[in-house]
Design a protein that fits this description.
By secondary structure, this protein is an all-alpha fold. It is built from nine helices and no strands.
Length: about 210
């Protein structure tokens, strides 16, 4: 394939990286367990859309700005931290129990909100941008690369394998929802635990060095 070296090696490496737990995995699991399969699927779509944004930015070279500018990196980083902490605090303070049978029906507007949150969670993580910028070039032959096309091919491949894996996780994790709905106290505890998890992800992002 013109401009790409060891494509199938890239696919294998991408699959290994996809199944390695990270912030995206935790977000999808949290949504799937707390709000069911549809919420999990929309969270996957949001995360995937964020990955596509990073792919395009890496292909256009804009991610280099994050690698070269400490100010730009920190601005994106702190925005991501603030957003994750906001989601966590909101979930902890939420009076309605996400596991309550009365709240089992999810409106279309709620699904779009879940999608949007997944998108922002991914886009506002500067480590993802730097990952694409540092990982993809390892499989591109600089002597035969033609503009952004090799970046786009590798990025879309990585997002495809990742989406399939995340959909499997969402489907598997959503099965726990029906069990938790039978116990209101357990459901409420899991809701607060999910909020703490989001805050923890924000703190982890904050403590990561550039």
């Amino acid at each position: 394939m013109d401009g790409i070296e060891n494509y199938w090696g890239f696919v294998l490496a991408g699959i290994i990286l996809n199944i390695t737990p990270g912030a995206d995995t935790m977000y999808i699991l949290t949504r799937s367990i707390s709000q069911g399969r549809r919420a999990g699927i929309y969270s996957v779509l949001g995360i995937t859309s964020g990955g596509l944004v990073h792919t395009i930015l890496a292909a256009l070279g804009l991610s280099i700005i994050l690698a070269k500018s400490a100010v730009a990196f920190n601005l994106v980083k702190y925005a991501g931290v603030a957003y994750l902490v906001y989601l966590g605090v909101k979930m902890i303070a939420e009076q309605n129990n996400l596991f309550d049978n009365k709240n089992q029906r999810i409106e279309h507007s709620d699904l779009f909100k879940i999608y949007r949150q997944g998108l922002f969670t991914n886009v506002l993580n500067p480590k993802v941008a730097l990952f694409f910028l540092s990982f993809l070039p390892q499989f591109i032959d600089v002597h035969y690369a033609h503009g952004p096309i090799p970046f786009l091919i590798l990025g879309f491949t990585f997002m495809t394998t990742g989406t399939l894996w995340f959909l499997f996780l969402a489907h598997a994790a959503s099965g726990i929802t029906s069990v938790l709905r039978k116990n209101n106290k357990t459901g409420k505890m899991m809701q607060r635990l999910s909020g703490i998890l989001f805050i923890g992800l924000g703190i982890k992002l904050l403590t990561n060095r550039r």
